[in-house]
Specification:
alpha/beta, eight-stranded mixed beta sheet, 13 helices, 54% helix, 13% strand, binds NADP nicotinamide-adenine-dinucleotide phosphate
């Protein structure tokens, strides 16, 4: 992993902020002395300072001003107030290039731009690229899948820096912003679909006589194994599924029930519903 010799700030030091900080230090991409965090929770700041040795402060404007990369990692409902406070501060200027990365779900680039660009001249705006990222919860264990979209002021070298940062918590793919609602519905909400299947498999195992702990172990290991097989083989999930399903066998008996109940069509409908909801939320 290449080392980035810039100061990075996390505004919001909660679950995601901490996942990033831990990953960036563990991978050696940033040294702790180049990482800053600001949060309203003194307790969170204390934990991050003691655990990772990073600099912490309860001052969003100060970290924004002093760092070259700013990751906004607060809940979506807090972002407007935070960005307004920063952009309305009397010392708000962009003398040098600064990359702003927002991971707040459902907050469109145009809304972040409206707040941060409002009081700036064109020269300053060009020095303040903004990137919207949709990560997912496996990022907390460094197995995330992020979709990202960058605004028009983002240069190739900025994108390179951002990808290095996002790859510390998993995989990343660049999209047009209009596709981020579909990304939200598929990979953002996606871990919940897998947990739901796991719940059903565990309950099914218990119903056919297994002890709950054994049913849970079988389910988790089976999902892990199936994922590994899917990742490592060159075959599609459909082909892999057909290979397990011999005529007249047990898997076929199971699939007759799944097909009769239109499980696949219902998952597709669920993803469409999540996409529509994401569009509504980001209006
Ligand atoms: N968790 C995930 O896996 C996941 C996945 C995809 C996207 N995201 C996005 O990531 C963002 C962060 O999520 P999270 O789970 O890390 O949330 P979180 O654990 O609640 O962390 C947010 C932190 O920001 C603090 N905060 C609130 N108001 C603030 C302010 N005015 N200034 C500075 N800090 C402030 C919160 O303090 P208090 O707790 O005291 O309010 C909290 O410590 C969200 O926008 C979410 O949509 C998260």
């Amino acid at each position: 992993m290449s080392k980035i010799n810039k100061k990075i700030a996390f505004i919001g030091a909660g679950n995601m902020g901490e996942a990033f900080v831990g990953a960036l230090i563990q991978t050696g991409i940033f040294s702790p002395s180049m990482i800053y965090a600001s949060d309203i929770s003194e307790k969170r700041l204390d934990i991050l300072n003691k655990t990772y040795g990073i600099s912490v402060m309860q001052n969003n404007f100060k970290v924004f001003s002093e760092c070259e990369i700013i990751v906004i990692a607060v809940k979506p409902q807090h972002i407007y107030q935070i960005l307004s406070q920063i952009s309305e501060h009397e010392g708000y200027r962009i003398p040098n290039r600064k990359i702003v990365i927002s991971i707040a779900a459902g907050i469109p680039l145009r809304k972040i731009e409206a707040l941060l660009y409002n009081s700036l001249d064109n020269d300053s705006i060009e020095k303040l690229p903004i990137i919207r990222v949709m990560p997912n919860t496996p990022a907390l264990v460094l197995a995330g899948m992020s979709g990202m979209s960058a605004n028009k002021y983002t240069k190739a070298e900025d994108l390179n820096t951002i990808k290095i940062i996002l790859e510390a918590i998993g995989k990343v793919i660049e999209f047009q912003e209009e596709d981020l609602d579909a990304v939200t519905a598929l990979s953002g909400s996606g871990p919940a679909y897998v947990f739901y299947i796991a719940e059903a498999m565990i309950e099914g195992g218990i119903k056919v006589g297994l002890k709950p702990d054994k049913a849970a172990m079988l389910t988790v290991a089976t999902i892990q194994g199936a994922l590994k097989l899917m990742e490592e083989s060159n075959e599609s999930p459909e082909i892999l599924r057909r290979k397990v399903t011999s005529p007249g066998g047990t898997t076929e008996a199971a699939f007759k029930v799944l097909e009769k109940n239109r499980v696949k069509q219902n998952v597709i409908e669920a993803i469409k519903a999540a996409t529509i909801r994401s569009k509504e939320l980001s209006r």
